[in-house]
Design goal:
mainly alpha; Growth Hormone, Chain: A; binds beta-D-glucopyranose
Length: 481
Amino acid sequence: MAATESGQPHDAKRSNRGISRWLVLVAAVVMLAGLLFGYDQGVISGALRGIESTFRVSTLVIEIVTSWVTLGALVGALGGGTMTDRFGRRRTVLAAAVLFVLGAAIESAAPSTWVLVVGRLVAGVGVGVASVAAPLYAAEMAPARLRGRFVSLYQLMITFGIFVAYLVDQLLSVASGSWWRLMLGLSVVPGLLLLVAMLPLPDSPVWYLKTGQRGKAQSALRRVQPDADHQRDIASIEASLQGPQPSWGEVFARRWRAPLVLGLGLAVLQQFTGINGVIYYADTIFEAAGFDTPRSQTAATTWSIGAVNVLFTFVAVGYVDRFGRRPLLLAGLVGMGVSLLVISVCFLRLEHVAVHGASPGNAPSAAGVVTLVAMMVFIASFAFSLGPVVWTVINEIYPSTIRGLGVSAATAANWAAAWLVTQFFLSLTDWIGESGTFAVFAGMCVVSFGFVWKLLPETKGRTLGEIQQMWVDRAGSGRPS
Ligand code: BGC
């Protein structure tokens, strides 16, 4: 028994069975989608200098070039849910890859800033659509015993994409002229690979059954999970599909309030605990710690933030299906909260030094070194918890009938929250100082801890059908869920 997503209980004895080559391809799809997300997020900071010198643009245009990818991704994530329901998971991923390749090609060949902005927007929509469709597809294709690991691969590749982008930024930062075109254009490669990986794969059995294509659902199951009890899986998926057709009204229906609040809450808290503020602030903190050239700051950011982020995501990939979602999240939030408090206190000290005229740039000050270590602890704690586990939970908690729309709402909330944090981070530091800002993030970790502790049920090893049934049982028993 291979315990597919649908209806079979977890069978520990058989959990070491090899993975079919089709499943490997499913993993490749979700990994390439993550790579697109991460690379796109990381590469722009290094490309900006070249863009500025090619087009001689204003700050406003630079801000638009930077942030419209997120805006595009927000739109893409919102539309992605309807697309996955109407056209299927597979075709939606293919469309996302085409959009992405197109956007990246327009960006790198752009003759003017406005064409560049259009390219950024198109690529952003592609990233947004992929960020809904690919992890959802992986969650529906993976056996229950491996689902957390499969979706965590998505986060692993987001972090790897950010890391590669840092490296490319570093390598090409010394070059002048039009290198930024290559930096942006390079992302055509994972986009094309995503197309190639997705083409031979079938859609998910859930979508086939949703659209009345029983034969295709059976053959998809046979291919991806040759050892599963297919009849039982099909029956279980069909049972989970009983009920109203997907609609936004159904997503917000009272009986699904618990998974809705959980998904939206986790998506927003993942951002409000400050990850992108910290990633953004890394260079400044390294400056305060005594790295006095921009080059050494970038190198420090690449290795102690970028590489630590990748390394610790492996912990989640390895343990999310063994330890479970709750322990990883709770432990990670403690690490994040404590390290943010330490950063906050150190900043009080650094601000004091700055105000009193000492130069923190010549040698690493004690506060600077402690800040550096605390930053690494923060990134490591995020990387094995909130980073991957939030995406895992978002993609498994919604009932089959509304999964596409539910995932899309949560993903869009995540993009909106990411945009808010990056947009207002600087204003917040101007207003309450760096120390105050990090203290606010630490406070959000406490809120998140309470949220997870109270509202998140453990979903490790449960099939998607079992998770759906759990919500129905809870609503029926009147338990607060
Ligand atoms: C978040 C991104 C973040 C990245 C860092 C992802 O899970 O959604 O906003 O930049 O993790 O690794």
